[in-house]
Amino acid sequence: MITLRHIGKTFPATRRQAAVTALDDVTLTVDRGQVMGVVGPSGSGKSTLARIVNLLERPTTGTVTVDGTELTALTSARELNRARRGIGMIFQQFNLLDSRTALANVELPLELAGVGRAERRARAGELLERVGLGDKLGSHPAQLSGGQRQRVAIARALAPRPKVLLCDEATSALDPVSTASVLDLLRTLTEELDLTTVLITHEMDVVKRACDHVTLLEAGRVVDAGALGDVVRRPHSPLATRLLPHPALPAGDQVVELTVGGDGHDAVLTELIRRYAVQVAVVAGSVETLGDQRFGRLQLRVDGAPQDVRAALDYLAQSGAAEAPADRELAGAVA
Ligand SMILES: Nc1ncnc2c1ncn2[C@@H]1O[C@H](COP(=O)(O)OP(=O)(O)OP(=O)(O)O)[C@@H](O)[C@H]1O
Ligand SMILES: [Mg+2]
């Protein structure tokens, strides 16, 4: 649904500031129906990336394709505006008009697109209902909480029936309870309205709760990316540790670390105990819910006769689920 190829963005030097390379050779694909998290520290280029997806900002190099249309190839403002209507956007600071009611805010993009009054009203009302504000149509932004304002902004972004929703720090101004409910709403809407959603955030908790895929930006470059369930099983990848920390290693123990959860990997532990004459103790562990699946990292101490321990550890290594957090310790255990 969204394909960025070799995107570079350099802001030219000004009298006061040297040139800044905000994005450097970023290639990224978001398939239809996905919720893609883009995480990275402040200044890593996340907002620039979001603005490039709908071409509010033109990339210096590379191509942007959304829903089969290469936006970077469009030359007329009319074509570009039509393509942009397929991409909704919400922001940290909501950007609602204070003088308008919730209903009139949601109607605004439809007014601009020339949709007639009755249809506009109906669609705006239906969307506000859908985001849980059916009883707030006549409220002004000042009369709404932060979470409610963001719901109005979501309804407004969805009014032109976009296929893509870009969210730039959409929950960063909200308290934890509102954050959770707005994220759950975004997930539900993505599914129900057949959207493709990009969640820009500096918070890993946002990714854990709402995303199925994630991309890590650092200094304008993609340094890690993938489906949450895949990334978490590459224990040494930069994102794996942020999604599911490695438990602290108890001093003096000889342990092997197993990543379990998602699909099927729990079977490894069952098989280990069934097949080998070893005792298995869990000495440390951490568990996280990622999207709707639970994952854990367990540190196991495997005891028994040396040949049995060796066979059991070989089995774990071959299963792909186990990693020795410190191969030194493992070597010690089987030596
Ligand atoms: N219009 C601009 N002119 C010059 N430099 C810019 C412009 N917009 C962004 N930059 C620079 O590009 C880099 C990336 O900025 P960007 O806003 O994309 O980061 P970000 O990851 O969204 O950060 P934050 O988490 O703080 O929102 C920064 O060094 C920033 O100063
Ligand atoms: Mg930003």
The string of secondary-structure elements, in order, is EEEHEEHEHHHEHEHEEHHEHEEHEH
Strand content: 25-35%
Provide the list of bound ligands, each named once.
adenosine-5'-triphosphate, magnesium ion
CATH superfamily of the largest domain: P-loop containing nucleotide triphosphate hydrolases
CA-to-CA gap between the ends? 52 Å
Count of helices?
Answer: 12
Q: So, CATH architecture of the largest domain? A: 3-Layer(aba) Sandwich
Descriptive key words:
alpha/beta, Rossmann fold, binds adenosine-5'-triphosphate, 36% helix, Alpha-Beta Plaits, 335 residues, six-stranded mixed beta sheet, 14 strands, binds magnesium ion, 12 helices, four-stranded antiparallel beta sheet
